[in-house]
Amino acid sequence: MPVLPLRTVAPAAGMTRLSEEWLADLDAALRAEDADWRRTCRETLFQLAHPGQGSWEERVADTSLPMASRLALEAFDPANITLEPEYYADVDPERFARVKPLLWLWYTFDRLPIGGQHVALGVMLRRVLAPHVFKRVGANFKCFQHVEVSFGYNLEVGDDVVVHRHVLLDDRGGLVLGDRVSISDYANIYSHTHSIVDQQDVTCLRTVLEDDVRVTYHATVLAGVRVARNGMVGAAAVATKDVRPYHVNVGIPAKSVRVKPNAPPELVRNARLPEHPDGS
Length: 280
Ligand SMILES: CC(C)(COP(=O)(O)OP(=O)(O)OC[C@H]1O[C@@H](n2cnc3c(N)ncnc32)[C@H](O)[C@@H]1OP(=O)(O)O)[C@@H](O)C(=O)NCCC(=O)NCCS
Known about the structure:
This protein is about 30% helix and about 15% strand. It is of the alpha/beta class. The protein folds into 2 domains: about 15-135, no CATH class; about 135-280, UDP N-Acetylglucosamine Acyltransferase, domain 1 (3 Solenoid). The longest helix is centred in the N-terminal third of the chain and has 19 residues, at about 15-30. The protein is globular. The structure holds coenzyme A (COA).
Protein backbone atom coordinates (compact mmCIF):
# COMPACT_ATOMS: atom_id res chain seq x y z
CA MET A 1 0.00 0.00 0.00
CA PRO A 2 1.36 3.49 -0.82
CA VAL A 3 2.33 5.67 2.15
CA LEU A 4 0.16 8.79 1.99
CA PRO A 5 1.00 11.20 4.82
CA LEU A 6 -1.43 14.07 5.35
CA ARG A 7 -0.74 17.24 3.38
CA THR A 8 0.00 20.45 5.25
CA VAL A 9 -2.77 22.96 4.61
CA ALA A 10 -3.89 26.05 6.49
CA PRO A 11 -6.40 28.86 6.02
CA ALA A 12 -5.09 32.25 4.80
CA ALA A 13 -2.67 33.91 7.24
CA GLY A 14 -5.17 36.60 8.28
CA MET A 15 -7.77 34.02 9.19
CA THR A 16 -5.25 32.00 11.20
CA ARG A 17 -4.17 35.11 13.12
CA LEU A 18 -7.76 36.08 13.84
CA SER A 19 -8.56 32.53 14.95
CA GLU A 20 -5.60 32.49 17.32
CA GLU A 21 -6.53 35.85 18.80
CA TRP A 22 -10.14 34.82 19.31
CA LEU A 23 -9.13 31.53 20.91
CA ALA A 24 -6.60 33.26 23.19
CA ASP A 25 -9.44 35.52 24.37
CA LEU A 26 -11.77 32.59 24.90
CA ASP A 27 -9.08 30.64 26.74
CA ALA A 28 -8.42 33.61 29.02
CA ALA A 29 -12.15 34.00 29.72
CA LEU A 30 -12.44 30.32 30.64
CA ARG A 31 -9.37 30.41 32.88
CA ALA A 32 -10.15 33.72 34.63
CA GLU A 33 -10.63 33.58 38.38
CA ASP A 34 -14.13 35.00 38.04
CA ALA A 35 -14.90 32.91 34.94
CA ASP A 36 -18.57 32.49 34.11
CA TRP A 37 -18.69 29.63 31.61
CA ARG A 38 -22.44 29.91 31.13
CA ARG A 39 -22.14 33.54 30.12
CA THR A 40 -19.09 32.91 27.94
CA CYS A 41 -20.89 30.06 26.18
CA ARG A 42 -24.06 31.98 25.28
CA GLU A 43 -22.22 35.15 24.25
CA THR A 44 -19.67 33.22 22.15
CA LEU A 45 -22.36 31.23 20.38
CA PHE A 46 -24.38 34.38 19.72
CA GLN A 47 -21.35 36.19 18.27
CA LEU A 48 -20.50 33.25 16.00
CA ALA A 49 -24.08 32.71 14.87
CA HIS A 50 -25.11 36.38 14.47
CA PRO A 51 -21.95 38.35 13.67
CA GLY A 52 -22.29 42.11 14.07
CA GLN A 53 -25.74 41.97 15.71
CA GLY A 54 -24.80 43.43 19.08
CA SER A 55 -24.72 41.30 22.18
CA TRP A 56 -26.79 38.35 23.40
CA GLU A 57 -27.91 40.38 26.41
CA GLU A 58 -29.28 43.14 24.15
CA ARG A 59 -31.02 40.91 21.68
CA VAL A 60 -32.60 38.63 24.25
CA ALA A 61 -34.12 41.66 26.01
CA ASP A 62 -35.98 42.63 22.84
CA THR A 63 -39.48 41.28 23.44
CA SER A 64 -40.68 42.61 20.07
CA LEU A 65 -38.82 39.81 18.29
CA PRO A 66 -40.85 36.92 16.91
CA MET A 67 -41.31 34.05 19.37
CA ALA A 68 -39.12 31.67 17.36
CA SER A 69 -36.26 34.21 17.36
CA ARG A 70 -36.57 34.68 21.11
CA LEU A 71 -36.57 30.94 21.63
CA ALA A 72 -33.50 30.50 19.42
CA LEU A 73 -31.69 33.25 21.33
CA GLU A 74 -32.58 31.74 24.71
CA ALA A 75 -31.22 28.40 23.52
CA PHE A 76 -27.69 29.79 23.31
CA ASP A 77 -27.79 29.80 27.10
CA PRO A 78 -26.80 26.33 28.37
CA ALA A 79 -29.10 26.77 31.36
CA ASN A 80 -32.05 26.78 28.94
CA ILE A 81 -31.39 23.47 27.20
CA THR A 82 -31.02 19.86 28.31
CA LEU A 83 -28.41 17.39 27.17
CA GLU A 84 -29.12 13.66 27.17
CA PRO A 85 -26.57 12.66 29.87
CA GLU A 86 -28.38 14.92 32.35
CA TYR A 87 -31.21 12.38 32.36
CA TYR A 88 -28.94 9.50 33.40
CA ALA A 89 -29.39 8.42 37.02
CA ASP A 90 -25.65 7.96 37.43
CA VAL A 91 -24.74 11.50 36.37
CA ASP A 92 -22.96 13.58 38.98
CA PRO A 93 -25.18 16.68 38.67
CA GLU A 94 -22.58 19.03 40.06
CA ARG A 95 -19.76 17.84 37.82
CA PHE A 96 -22.00 17.78 34.78
CA ALA A 97 -23.36 21.26 35.47
CA ARG A 98 -19.75 22.48 35.50
CA VAL A 99 -18.88 21.08 32.05
CA LYS A 100 -22.29 21.54 30.42
CA PRO A 101 -21.70 25.09 29.09
CA LEU A 102 -18.52 23.96 27.36
CA LEU A 103 -20.18 20.87 25.90
CA TRP A 104 -23.00 23.06 24.59
CA LEU A 105 -20.48 25.43 23.06
CA TRP A 106 -18.57 22.48 21.53
CA TYR A 107 -21.64 20.81 20.01
CA THR A 108 -23.36 23.97 18.83
CA PHE A 109 -20.19 25.34 17.19
CA ASP A 110 -20.22 22.18 15.04
CA ARG A 111 -23.66 23.13 13.77
CA LEU A 112 -22.88 26.72 12.83
CA PRO A 113 -21.69 27.79 9.36
CA ILE A 114 -18.27 28.67 10.81
CA GLY A 115 -17.89 25.34 12.60
CA GLY A 116 -19.47 22.55 10.59
CA GLN A 117 -16.63 21.66 8.25
CA HIS A 118 -13.90 24.11 9.28
CA VAL A 119 -11.29 21.60 10.38
CA ALA A 120 -8.50 23.97 11.42
CA LEU A 121 -10.61 26.19 13.67
CA GLY A 122 -12.58 23.28 15.10
CA VAL A 123 -9.45 21.37 16.13
CA MET A 124 -8.05 24.51 17.79
CA LEU A 125 -11.31 25.24 19.63
CA ARG A 126 -11.57 21.68 20.95
CA ARG A 127 -7.99 21.94 22.23
CA VAL A 128 -9.10 24.96 24.28
CA LEU A 129 -12.24 23.25 25.62
CA ALA A 130 -11.04 19.68 26.24
CA PRO A 131 -8.75 20.40 29.23
CA HIS A 132 -11.70 21.94 31.08
CA VAL A 133 -14.14 19.17 30.18
CA PHE A 134 -12.14 15.94 30.32
CA LYS A 135 -10.57 14.33 33.37
CA ARG A 136 -7.26 14.56 31.52
CA VAL A 137 -6.09 15.40 28.01
CA GLY A 138 -2.55 15.16 26.67
CA ALA A 139 -0.66 17.12 24.04
CA ASN A 140 -1.78 17.56 20.42
CA PHE A 141 -5.34 16.32 20.87
CA LYS A 142 -6.85 16.34 17.39
CA CYS A 143 -10.60 16.09 17.36
CA PHE A 144 -12.75 16.54 14.28
CA GLN A 145 -16.38 17.68 14.10
CA HIS A 146 -19.52 16.08 15.50
CA VAL A 147 -17.84 14.08 18.21
CA GLU A 148 -19.96 13.47 21.32
CA VAL A 149 -19.09 12.44 24.84
CA SER A 150 -21.44 11.37 27.63
CA PHE A 151 -20.21 13.15 30.75
CA GLY A 152 -16.81 14.31 29.55
CA TYR A 153 -15.50 14.43 33.11
CA ASN A 154 -14.85 10.64 33.08
CA LEU A 155 -12.74 10.74 29.93
CA GLU A 156 -8.94 10.40 30.02
CA VAL A 157 -7.03 11.14 26.84
CA GLY A 158 -3.32 10.62 26.27
CA ASP A 159 -0.90 12.43 23.96
CA ASP A 160 -1.29 12.63 20.16
CA VAL A 161 -4.79 11.17 20.14
CA VAL A 162 -6.90 11.59 17.00
CA VAL A 163 -10.68 11.34 17.05
CA HIS A 164 -12.35 11.59 13.67
CA ARG A 165 -15.81 12.97 12.83
CA HIS A 166 -19.06 11.57 14.20
CA VAL A 167 -17.47 9.48 16.93
CA LEU A 168 -19.28 8.71 20.19
CA LEU A 169 -17.04 8.53 23.27
CA ASP A 170 -19.27 7.26 26.06
CA ASP A 171 -17.44 7.87 29.32
CA ARG A 172 -20.30 7.01 31.73
CA GLY A 173 -18.30 4.18 33.27
CA GLY A 174 -14.95 5.79 32.55
CA LEU A 175 -13.07 5.80 29.28
CA VAL A 176 -9.31 5.84 28.84
CA LEU A 177 -7.63 6.56 25.52
CA GLY A 178 -3.89 5.92 25.65
CA ASP A 179 -1.20 7.77 23.75
CA ARG A 180 -1.47 7.85 19.95
CA VAL A 181 -4.90 6.22 19.91
CA SER A 182 -6.79 6.80 16.68
CA ILE A 183 -10.56 6.50 16.37
CA SER A 184 -12.00 6.62 12.87
CA ASP A 185 -15.21 8.15 11.56
CA TYR A 186 -18.52 6.99 13.01
CA ALA A 187 -16.96 4.66 15.61
CA ASN A 188 -18.70 4.20 18.96
CA ILE A 189 -16.88 3.46 22.20
CA TYR A 190 -19.16 2.56 25.12
CA SER A 191 -18.64 2.28 28.86
CA HIS A 192 -22.18 1.44 29.95
CA THR A 193 -24.58 -1.34 29.12
CA HIS A 194 -28.22 -2.25 29.87
CA SER A 195 -29.68 -5.49 31.24
CA ILE A 196 -31.55 -7.50 28.61
CA VAL A 197 -34.43 -7.83 31.09
CA ASP A 198 -34.68 -4.39 32.58
CA GLN A 199 -33.61 -1.47 30.44
CA GLN A 200 -33.13 0.65 33.55
CA ASP A 201 -30.64 -1.82 35.01
CA VAL A 202 -27.45 -0.15 33.83
CA THR A 203 -23.93 -1.41 34.37
CA CYS A 204 -21.10 1.07 33.97
CA LEU A 205 -17.73 -0.45 33.10
CA ARG A 206 -14.43 1.24 32.45
CA THR A 207 -13.35 0.86 28.83
CA VAL A 208 -9.70 1.17 27.89
CA LEU A 209 -7.97 1.69 24.57
CA GLU A 210 -4.29 1.34 25.31
CA ASP A 211 -1.42 3.13 23.57
CA ASP A 212 -1.35 2.99 19.74
CA VAL A 213 -4.77 1.38 19.41
CA ARG A 214 -6.79 2.00 16.26
CA VAL A 215 -10.54 1.65 16.17
CA THR A 216 -11.50 1.96 12.52
CA TYR A 217 -14.55 3.21 10.62
CA HIS A 218 -18.01 2.42 12.01
CA ALA A 219 -16.62 0.01 14.60
CA THR A 220 -18.10 -0.36 18.07
CA VAL A 221 -16.28 -1.18 21.28
CA LEU A 222 -18.59 -2.36 24.06
CA ALA A 223 -18.42 -1.42 27.73
CA GLY A 224 -15.62 -2.87 29.79
CA VAL A 225 -13.53 -3.98 26.82
CA ARG A 226 -9.79 -3.42 26.91
CA VAL A 227 -8.10 -3.07 23.54
CA ALA A 228 -4.49 -3.74 24.36
CA ARG A 229 -1.60 -1.70 22.98
CA ASN A 230 -1.31 -1.59 19.23
CA GLY A 231 -4.53 -3.56 18.89
CA MET A 232 -6.86 -2.78 16.01
CA VAL A 233 -10.62 -3.11 15.62
CA GLY A 234 -11.56 -3.50 11.94
CA ALA A 235 -14.16 -1.56 10.01
CA ALA A 236 -17.73 -2.10 11.29
CA ALA A 237 -16.57 -4.65 13.86
CA VAL A 238 -18.17 -4.99 17.30
CA ALA A 239 -15.55 -5.65 19.96
CA THR A 240 -17.42 -7.50 22.72
CA LYS A 241 -14.28 -8.89 24.37
CA ASP A 242 -10.73 -7.72 25.01
CA VAL A 243 -8.41 -7.37 22.04
CA ARG A 244 -4.90 -8.70 22.57
CA PRO A 245 -1.86 -6.50 21.92
CA TYR A 246 -1.04 -6.08 18.21
CA HIS A 247 -4.03 -8.20 17.20
CA VAL A 248 -6.37 -7.16 14.43
CA ASN A 249 -9.94 -8.12 15.38
CA VAL A 250 -12.73 -7.97 12.81
CA GLY A 251 -16.37 -8.96 12.47
CA ILE A 252 -19.34 -9.28 14.82
CA PRO A 253 -18.39 -10.34 17.41
CA ALA A 254 -14.86 -9.17 16.64
CA LYS A 255 -12.31 -11.97 16.45
CA SER A 256 -8.60 -11.87 15.81
CA VAL A 257 -7.69 -12.49 12.19
CA ARG A 258 -4.02 -11.64 12.42
CA VAL A 259 -1.20 -10.27 14.51
CA LYS A 260 0.45 -7.15 13.13
CA PRO A 261 3.80 -7.94 11.52
CA ASN A 262 5.48 -5.37 13.77
CA ALA A 263 4.45 -7.23 16.96
CA PRO A 264 7.28 -8.13 19.34
CA PRO A 265 8.22 -11.82 18.81
CA GLU A 266 7.02 -12.93 22.25
CA LEU A 267 3.51 -11.68 21.44
CA VAL A 268 3.52 -13.41 18.06
CA ARG A 269 4.54 -16.69 19.71
CA ASN A 270 1.67 -16.43 22.21
CA ALA A 271 -0.93 -15.43 19.66
CA ARG A 272 -2.51 -18.90 19.13
CA LEU A 273 -4.43 -17.86 16.05
CA PRO A 274 -5.69 -20.40 13.51
CA GLU A 275 -4.23 -18.32 10.69
CA HIS A 276 -1.10 -17.50 12.60
CA PRO A 277 1.90 -17.34 10.26
CA ASP A 278 3.95 -19.93 12.18
CA GLY A 279 0.93 -22.16 12.80
CA SER A 280 1.11 -21.91 16.63
C1 LIG B 1 -8.82 -4.38 9.92
C2 LIG B 1 -8.27 -4.30 8.51
C3 LIG B 1 -7.15 -3.28 8.49
C4 LIG B 1 -7.78 -5.69 8.17
O1 LIG B 1 -6.97 -5.64 7.06
P1 LIG B 1 -5.97 -6.85 6.75
O2 LIG B 1 -5.11 -7.13 7.95
O3 LIG B 1 -5.27 -6.48 5.49
O4 LIG B 1 -6.88 -8.09 6.59
P2 LIG B 1 -7.30 -8.83 5.28
O5 LIG B 1 -7.90 -7.87 4.31
O6 LIG B 1 -6.15 -9.67 4.82
O7 LIG B 1 -8.46 -9.77 5.82
C5 LIG B 1 -8.27 -10.92 6.62
C6 LIG B 1 -9.61 -11.61 6.71
O8 LIG B 1 -10.48 -10.83 7.52
C7 LIG B 1 -11.61 -10.39 6.75
N1 LIG B 1 -11.84 -8.99 7.10
C8 LIG B 1 -11.00 -7.96 6.95
N2 LIG B 1 -11.54 -6.84 7.41
C9 LIG B 1 -12.76 -7.17 7.86
C10 LIG B 1 -13.79 -6.43 8.47
N3 LIG B 1 -13.65 -5.14 8.72
N4 LIG B 1 -14.91 -7.09 8.83
C11 LIG B 1 -15.05 -8.43 8.58
N5 LIG B 1 -14.09 -9.17 8.02
C12 LIG B 1 -12.97 -8.55 7.66
C13 LIG B 1 -11.19 -10.55 5.30
O9 LIG B 1 -12.30 -10.72 4.49
C14 LIG B 1 -10.33 -11.76 5.38
O10 LIG B 1 -11.14 -12.89 5.50
P3 LIG B 1 -10.77 -14.27 4.73
O11 LIG B 1 -9.45 -14.69 5.33
O12 LIG B 1 -11.91 -15.18 5.06
O13 LIG B 1 -10.65 -13.91 3.30
C15 LIG B 1 -9.31 -3.79 7.51
O14 LIG B 1 -10.27 -4.74 7.27
C16 LIG B 1 -10.05 -2.61 7.99
O15 LIG B 1 -11.01 -2.68 8.73
N6 LIG B 1 -9.63 -1.45 7.50
C17 LIG B 1 -10.23 -0.24 7.92
C18 LIG B 1 -9.52 0.87 7.28
C19 LIG B 1 -8.63 1.61 8.24
O16 LIG B 1 -7.52 1.24 8.45
N7 LIG B 1 -9.17 2.67 8.82
C20 LIG B 1 -8.44 3.50 9.69
C21 LIG B 1 -8.27 4.85 9.11
S1 LIG B 1 -7.76 6.00 10.29
